[in-house]
Amino acid sequence: MVVRKDHGRTLFLLAGIQFLLILDTAIINVAAPSIGRELGIAAAELSWVANAYLVAFGGLLLISGRAADLLPRRTLLVVGLGVLVVGSVAGALAADAWLLIAARATQGVGAAFAAAAAFAALLAHFPDGPERHRALGVFAAMAGAGGAAGTVLGGVLTDVLGWRSTFGLNVVAGAALALLALCVLGPQPRRPRPGTTLDVAGALTVTAGLGLLAYALVSAGIDGWTAPRTLLAAASAAGLLTVFVLVQRWAPEPIVPAAAVRQPAVRAANLLAALSQFVLFPMFFLVSLYMQDVLGFPPMAGGLGLLPLSITVVAVAANTGRMIARFGVRPVMVVGCVLLAGGLAGLVPLSAGSSFFPDVLCPTLVIGVGLPLVAVTTNVAATAHAGPDGLGVASGLVTTSQQFGAVLGLAVLGGVGHPAAFAVAAALAAASAAVAFFPHTGSVAGAR
């Protein structure tokens, strides 16, 4: 990818986009109660203020990844940020629930294309090896920082300026990043090779299928797994995704080329990416809920309670590339999974008689060490074999795995509550360590 400035400015831009997208996911969770009170939104509708973003984002990840391979990434990045800004303006001005939900869905559309373009641009700009590992470490660090900042800023902005200011923050940050992208990234005139076309049938079926799957998972967490709305959405998603698989067999230019998922290491890495988010996303929700409902922390203090974890993620992620260079991908991945299992197991004994220190703080710090090790190594393994024309697809696949792992984890474990949810999560993290240990992930262990 052609750039005008140095690696540092490019990484600053791309990591900043990752920071904003994660911040946007976290900040709305803190502002949601105030939104519900001011607009008179019922609890069921209020949940969709957060979830409309997840459904749109999850449904469009694969098509946006393919678009990042066919279109100029700078253009796609700026357009995605522009759509995110438009959705944020609409959210700030929304006067009722459905306008706000539509605005959140628009934000999700923009976020999907911005995320795919940013990840593909990072992979293209930093070649496989230590340089890319360091860049992915910074990317993971910004994800941790975005989660922490979203939680804290959500409380501060909502208390001081009102919930609409949280959307205003996205407007300013999104516009600034779009302008920076135009200055930092070169024009990069990407032209598909002759005969390359977009697989329209595949695009329609996978986008609708993934969108309905996300809808079904979110509905399961709200209405239950046997609710008619959940079952209908799940059945429709299964049908559309089956059609998508069949379409990919005869499409001349499939959205997901067979080579993208042929390697066992790539399949294992995507599985581990999904499993890690399956156990981690509900953990943030359940720990925050425990601190507020059991320990009696106010919302802002509950967010600050997770700040040590987020700081640990940032510190470890920035050094994960060095660990990979010294020990290899697979050993670091195994250690990360073991640490996640240990930290989650440490949360199982939480009860009404527990305290923040050491019962919450110590296990979450262990999780904070393991989380970036798993996040960076799974991204490395999932994208190491991608060629220049498949970087968007590779990034779209692993991001899709992470997104649906998170949504499924929240739907399954979020309704269980602790200690059972933490026990199941710890067991799955231990199983992930076993999967990572086997040789089929070892083909990327030599990438340093």
Q: Care to describe what's here?
A:
This protein has 448 residues and is mainly α. It has 2 domains: 1-198, MFS general substrate transporter like domains (Growth Hormone, Chain: A), CATH 1.20.1250; 260-448, Up-down Bundle (Growth Hormone, Chain: A). The chain is built from 16 helices and no strands. Helix 7 (200-223) packs parallel to helix 15 (391-413). The longest helix is centred in the N-terminal third of the chain and has 33 residues, at 7-39. It is globular.
Number of strands: 0
| CATH architecture grouping of the largest domain | Up-down Bundle
Largest sheet: none
Average residue-wise pLDDT:
85
CATH fold annotation of the largest domain: Growth Hormone, Chain: A
Helix content: over 70%
CATH level 4 superfamily of the largest domain: MFS general substrate transporter like domains
End-to-end distance, in Å? Answer: 22 Å
- Element order: H for helix, E for strand: HHHHHHHHHHHHHHHH
Poorly predicted runs:
1-5, 441-448
